[in-house]
Every structure is written in C-alpha cells, then in structure tokens.
Amino acid sequence: MGANEIKEVAGGIFGSLEATKSIAAAFAIAVGALGPALAIGKLASKAMESIGRNPEATSKVQTAMILSIAFAEAIAIYALVVALIIKFV
Prior knowledge:
- The protein is mainly α and about 90 residues long.
- It contains 3 helices and no strands.
- Helix 2 (about 15-55) packs antiparallel against helix 3 (about 60-89).
- Helix content is about 90%, strand content about 0%.
- The protein has a single domain (about 5-89), classed as F1FO ATP Synthase (Up-down Bundle), CATH 1.20.20.
- The mean pLDDT is about 90.
C-alpha cells in the first residue's frame, strides 16, 4: 500500500488527519474525565454521610476528602494532557 492509498482509506472514514486527531482528543478527554467525576462524587457523598453520622470528626474527614479529591482530579489533568498531545502532535 502506498501513501496515497492510505490517505484515501483514512480520508474516506474521517475526512482528514486533523479531523481524526480532533475526534481522538475528544474521546480521550471524555473517557479520561468520566472516572474522576464519578470518584469525586462518591468521595463527597461518603464524606458528607460520615460527617452527618459523627460531626466531631469533621476536620479529619474533610482533610482526607480534600486530599483524595486532589488525587482524583490529577487523573483528569493527565487525560487532558494526553488529549492535548493527541491534538497538537
């Protein structure tokens, strides 16, 4: 297969390389943000539940919750970096 034949096959599916990159970047950030979004929601839910059951432990629970949310958010930032690399490289 020559380069022109490969371009024709790829061009028929997505139109161009830039379109393919845009679709791949969008898919990467969509999938990459789904996990952290669910994790942050679950973390906040359980933290509020535990604070409601034991209000004296608010500071300990809140500190652990914020730290866990930061780690979960880091995964979304990694997905954003991957999407930007796909798009611009």
